[in-house]
Amino acid sequence: MSLLFTDFASWQQHCAQTGEPLWQPVLNYEMEQKGRSEEAIWDGLQRAYDVMRDAVHTGLSENMTSRSGMINNGAKKVAASPVTVLSPEFKQLITRALGAKEVNSCMGRVVAAPTAGASGILPGVLVTLQDLHKLEDRSILEGLLVAAGIALIIEQNASLAGAVGGCQAETGSAAAMGAGAIVYCLGGSVDQALAAVAITIQCMLGLVCDPVAGLVEVPCVVRNASAAAIAFSSAQIAIAGVDPVIPVDQCVAALGEVGESMETRYKETALGGLANTPRARQIEQKVLIQDIQILPDEAQM
Amino acid sequence: MAEKSSIFDMIGPVMIGPSSSHTAGVVRIARAAIRVLGSQPTHATITFYNSFARTYEGHGSDRAIVAGLLDYPTDDKRIRESFDHAKEAGLNFTFQGVGNASTMHPNTIRLELRDERAGTQVEVIGQSRGGGVIRIVEVDGFPCDFSAALHTLIIDADDVKGSIAFIADVIAHDDCNIATMNVSRQGKNQVARQFIEIDSPLTELSLQYLRHLRWVHQVRYIPAID
Ligand code: SF4
Predict the structure, then answer these.
(1) Can you tell me the distance from the alpha carbon of B60 to that of A109, in angstroms, rounded to the nearest whole number?
(2) Closest CA relative to residue A252, chosen from A181, A183, A165
(3) In angstroms, rounded to a whole number, what is the distance separating the alpha carbons of residues A24 and A26?
(4) Residue B119 belongs to a domain
(5) Quick check: is B7 in a domain?
(6) Which of A60, A260, A290, B73 has the fewest CB atoms lying closer than 10 Å?
(7) Cβ distance of A215 and B12 shorter than 8 Å
(8) Which member of A47, A147, A288 has the closest CB to residue B55?
């Protein structure tokens, strides 16, 4: 029977015992649990990666203005900026994550990975990784399998949805998936890949979900960029062999605990945080449809 | 134990933004509804309820519902420009919103569809449940509950003794498994309406047979919508 991805410890153990790379048991899981052929799985991953690449390209070439006006070609502005604050590669990472996420906000085609709100993170991370290190597509697809394994475990032990666990669950999980994939693709050990997941969760823990006017635009788009950056910083730390101290499964448990205790106003309800600022309330008045029918109060009937 | 997730729920689905409940789910409600109508409508009155009523523009659910009425798949890039395509396709549509239908799910849509050429019309109510999952909960005033993720049969028949068992038998002979069955007599007509979800597709021959039965008035078949 295939590994069921109930926790990171058993994944780690499985790889240690069999000598399999991290992605192999994920592939086996999908074949056994979902009855898909190996070929169909690689094809599906290739299609997902093609859509991600296409989203990056679209976000950096087409007009990206959202209906609300809050998103207005930010990725292209960053790309065209004369100032490079860190390095050209860093700037590219940021533009790609922003661009792909802007495509999502502007009704373009994306891969929800793991969710639509976080759909800029893996494209930004993986396209940049491939570009910088001249990796084959096959290597990126293996990285996607590793990312999927990470998400399966987080889904079971915490959550992947902003409405359930806050933004830490959504962009945090995507960043963790990206970090694990980076370490895997660059030849890091199993322990290092999982350490990258642990470190990323440590960085993203506590982030609330507070989208202005309930739209997946502000702060979602900029958080896709920052989450992509955190994926790289975590991978850099982990691949050097730095110990995250708190084991990855315990980090996931903490993610779940924080998500559970988070008040509902911080869970995609647009009642708290940035969504509850005066400016956000103004925008809400403009964006929300005011001309609607209100039925007579049913309680009094 | 709950069913295991697919890796393509983690890396996927491929979809049109911004969110699966506001775009993918909405597209699917419309695609289910035009299959109930049996053709592409020429006129549509679209009512968004509750949370949808205020947000449908901001989230692009208006584009999504029109795209679904044009039968676009949930990952079709044309969704964003669906209003333009509707014009070309001869589809007229109007929107309205109702803010406080407290007995309804927060993300509910009512579609009143009419095909002027065929002289048919239908009224469908659907809910977008998140993650692109939908429930159709009412057809022409008959309560129902199907997801359009399986194959669905809608059969209007006289309420004769043994009719349900007979229909179940025909389906079983096609080697189809009935997942859910729902008989509703509370509609506007006197006949009973059966909503049957089946796991695998029904053959054309069985459909024809059901349509030829004297006590059967109408059979609509809605293959699973991806
Ligand atoms: S703030 Fe909420 S809606 Fe926006 S990306 Fe984070 S979890 Fe998603």
Answers:
(1) 13
(2) A165
(3) 5
(4) yes
(5) no
(6) A290
(7) no
(8) A288
Confirm or reject: Cβ of A209 under 6 Å from ligand 1: yes
Contact B36, B144 (CB under 8 A): no
Same domain, B46 and B128: yes
Please check whether residue B2 lies inside any domain of the structure: no
> Based on the domain organization, do B160 and B88 belong to the same domain?
no
Question: Taking CB atoms and an 8 Å limit, are B14 and A110 in contact across chains?
Answer: yes
Query: Is A22 part of the contact surface with chain B (CB cutoff 8 Å)?
Result: no
Helix axes A23-34, A38-61, angle to 10 degrees: 110
User: Phi/psi of residue A142, each to 5°?
Assistant: -60, -40
Burial of A241 (0-12, 13-18, 19+ CB in 10 A): exposed
The torsion region of residue B193 among left (phi > 0), alpha (psi -120 to 50) and beta comes to beta
What sign does the CA torsion over A220, A224, A227, A229 have? negative
pLDDT tens digits, residue range B190-214? Answer: 788 999 999 999 999 999 999 999 9
Of B85, B116, B139, which residue constitutes the final position of a domain?
A: B139
Say whether both B132 and B187 belong to one domain.
no
CA distances from B39 to A273, B121, B222 (A): 46, 10, 12
Q: Is A170 near ligand 1, meaning CB less than 6 Å away? A: yes
- Contact of B55 with chain A, judged by CB distance below 8 Å, is answered with yes
B14 at the A interface (CB within 8 A)? yes
- B134 and B162 part of one domain: no
A258: left (phi over 0), alpha (psi -120 to 50) or beta: alpha
Contact: B10, A148; criterion CB under 8 Å: yes
Contact criterion met (CB < 8 Å) for A103 and B17:
yes
Residue type, B13: P
Listed residues B76, B110, B139: the one ending a domain: B139
Q: How many domains does chain B have?
A: 2
Cut 0.80: pTM above it: yes
CA of A161, closest atom in ligand 1: 7
Q: State how beta strands B178-184 and B120-128 pair.
A: unpaired
The CATH number of residue B171's host domain is 3.30.70.260
Q: Which atom of ligand 1 is nearest to the CA of A167?
A: 7
Q: Which domain holds residue B186?
A: 151-226
pLDDT in tens, B153-177: 999 998 888 888 999 999 999 999 9
Dump pLDDT digits (tens) for A115-157: 999 999 999 999 999 999 999 999 999 999 999 999 999 999 9
Verify that B127 and B203 share a domain, yes or no: no
Instruction: Rounding to the nearest 10 degrees, give the CA dihedral for residues B127, B58, A77, A277.
Output: -110
User: For the domain that residue B79 is a member of, what is the CATH number?
Assistant: 3.30.1330.90
**Amino acid type, B36:** V
